[in-house]
Amino acid sequence: MADIADRAMIRRASAGDARDARRLPPLAATPAGPWRALADRAIEPNGYYQPDWELAVDASARGRTDASVLSAGNDAGQLIGLLPVVSMQRIYKIPLPALVGAEPYGTLCTPLLDRDAAEDAVTKMFRQARNAGAHALILRTMSLEGPAMSAIRAVLTRDGLQPRVLSAYQRAELDATRDADELLRDALGPKKVKELRRQSNRLADHGAVRFDVARPPREVASALETFLALEAGGWKGKRGTALGQHAGDATFIRRATVAMAEAGRCEIITLFAGETPVAGGIVLRHQDRAFFFKIGIDERFAKYSPGTQLTLELTRHLCADPAIASADSTAAPGHPMIDPIWRGRFAIGDVLLPLRRHDPLVPAIHAAVRLHGLAWEAARSAIHLIRNRRGKSAPAQ
Asked: Most CB contacts within 10 A, which of 29, 64, 233, 389?
């Protein structure tokens, strides 16, 4: 840390500010009713910051519990802004005075801002963060070009500040206003469409291919168990990252999906061959946008591309729904399955928002986050190298 900033300055900041999130109200104490009303009025949708989802995350999801909240109200007491947050020390293990948007088990941390009072909400949330001792706010996987970021930029500019983009990439999205078959032909080309149709016909040799959408809470609860079994039976299960493998995660997803389904904001999609589920997914809804949360497949049917087949059916399903204008893939950049199908793109990234002018701690916070990112990338590359070497040395089956 000596290369990032003066040690004495960091110690002074740490002594008073490193636990800044604890000065804020707990997220769990936020009333769901006003929160839900704000989500309905939000200037930009974020399915993962809806109360039925995020409160379930906060209650039990592994490594994601006990968040605090930045919020803002208007003169009438109406909630106009909300962002779940945790301390920088908790996320990066660095005792510097910054708040970080809480990751909601879905890669999108765009705050909820009232469409009629977005800049007022940002102003009040920034003030609350400063009063809690924070010198910066870090939003990970933030929508960088949407109306929420525009409101944030406007407030920063007014105060003589500028956001610092830490990382950025283009994420796949679906334009659901288009005709699905035309969209798929344009995206994949006639040759690939023909090949996928052939695979679907081959899959039908195992039983009639059927795409099922579970919407009512009881159906969602049942379909979720099928999804959890599919996910645990694949590579996520082998790596120990499937939702059903950890009690807290399993409790979260069972609570969240049923609660969201009760509000008409969650669907479980399943592709069957006869009575056998071969692929499944979880889809959230917020305003006119869908969010493709997770997918699981039965790898015994891998040669028929069940994940792709499920995504093709989801594309047709969403394009046929007049209530949905677009869908966020919530996928990593360059995802090999969904990027060739959903050709729309929007900018996602991590952004650092300074809260004070000429603050000497902001460069230190910025440098610390960048160094943390470099260390994480190095560790990830090493893990991939080890896995590749193990795969090459394994005996042929």
From this structure: 64
Q: Where are the alpha helices (DSSP H) in 1-75?
A: 7-17, 32-41, 51-60
- Per DSSP, the three-state class of 91 is helix
Which DSSP helix (H) or strand (E) runs through 328? strand 326-328
* Whether the predicted model's global pTM rises above the 0.70 cut: yes
Strands 79-87 and 68-73: what pairing?
A: antiparallel
Residue with tokens 């301390």, as numbered in its chain: 87
Closest CA to 112 of 152, 76, 77, 145: 152
Helix (H, G, I), strand (E, B) or coil at 202: helix
CA distance 41 to 262: 19
Retrieve residue 37's tokens. Answer: 């009303």
Q: Which of 342, 353, 321, 294 is nearest to 110 (CA)?
A: 353
Distance CA 112, CA 125 (A): 11
Task: Summarize pLDDT for 253-298 with one digit per residue, the tens.
Answer: 999 999 999 999 999 999 999 999 999 999 999 999 999 999 999 9
Strand partners, 280: 270, 296
